């Protein structure tokens, strides 16, 4: 077999191959030249600066939207959450809550600072949001000059009062009186304590105060208080305002702390309704 005939090119074929190589070389040079000689796109620094300012502005708007809005509020209705929004410490909030538990009212900015002991700097930031209704200013004078304070024996029993009897209270009309009775009847033997009036929808602190001047729980419902340091999840969910997720969080916090020593520790539980602590305490005890 003659192999030479398979590897030998004619003169015309050799010229064709040479021309093909030349074309490939030329194309490579053209590609290289075009690749590295593309004109640079000019970028104006002023345009970049403008875009950066717009991005920063959008970021600030987003941060402002995430920040809780502050509105004028009566400091007599402060709770742990509201106080924290205004930058108050736990100690300052506790002083205010203890003052209110005594049935006293904050009537001025000066009294607010005297009770809470907030700093002058913090007070200056809170003042624009403090709102004092006229009735809080006149509360003390009204009680001392026109009202007769009833003793426990003289008051009516909140667990036996009728809707008609409740309607004589200032601020309690047919709707609220019926609502109080319906809420009371949800429990066998009625209320445990006057504090449960806080759970009746529509009752303001002022109206509750007016009710307690004429009525109180004189025949409280009997309950067996649960030891929170040994209670199971099923035990805890029998308590008002405690559901399964909260009961789970209470058990978890209790384990971490190796038991609760005070009610303040219970307030640290994730999702705990601190404004309902007094009602929850009716069902629990710390041992």
UniProtKB/TrEMBL annotation:
InterPro entries: Endo/Exo/Phosphatase_dom_1 (IPR051675), RuvA_2-like (IPR010994)
Keyword Cell membrane set for record: no
Keywords: Membrane, Transmembrane, Transmembrane helix
Transmembrane segments: 16-34
Origin: domain of life: Bacteria
Protein name (database record): Helix-hairpin-helix domain-containing protein
């Amino acid at each position: 077999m003659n192999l030479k005939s398979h590897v030998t090119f004619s003169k015309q074929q050799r010229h064709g191959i040479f021309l093909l190589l030349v074309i490939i070389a030329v194309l490579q040079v053209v590609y290289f030249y075009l690749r590295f000689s593309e004109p640079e796109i000019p970028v104006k620094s002023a345009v970049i600066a403008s875009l950066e300012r717009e991005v920063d502005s959008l970021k600030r708007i987003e941060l402002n939207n995430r920040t809780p809005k502050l509105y004028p509020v009566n400091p007599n209705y402060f709770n742990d959450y509201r106080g924290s929004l205004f930058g108050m410490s736990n100690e300052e909030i506790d002083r205010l809550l203890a003052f209110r538990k005594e049935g006293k009212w904050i009537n001025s900015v000066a009294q607010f600072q005297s009770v809470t002991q907030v700093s002058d700097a913090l007070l200056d930031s809170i003042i624009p949001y403090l709102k004092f209704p006229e009735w809080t200013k006149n509360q003390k004078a009204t009680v001392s000059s026109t009202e007769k304070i009833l003793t426990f024996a003289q008051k009516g029993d909140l667990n036996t009062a009728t809707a008609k009897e409740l309607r004589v209270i200032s601020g309690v009309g047919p709707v609220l009186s019926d609502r109080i009775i319906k809420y009371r009847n949800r429990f066998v033997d009625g209320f445990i304590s006057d504090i449960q009036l806080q759970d009746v929808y529509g009752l303001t602190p002022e109206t509750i105060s007016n009710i307690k001047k004429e009525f109180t729980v004189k025949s409280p419902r009997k309950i067996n208080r649960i030891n929170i340091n040994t209670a199971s999840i099923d035990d805890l969910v029998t308590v008002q305002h405690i559901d399964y997720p909260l009961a789970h969080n209470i058990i978890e916090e209790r384990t971490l702390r190796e038991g609760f020593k005070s009610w303040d520790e219970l307030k640290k539980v994730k999702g705990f309704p601190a404004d309902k602590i007094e009602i929850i305490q009716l069902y629990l005890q710390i041992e």
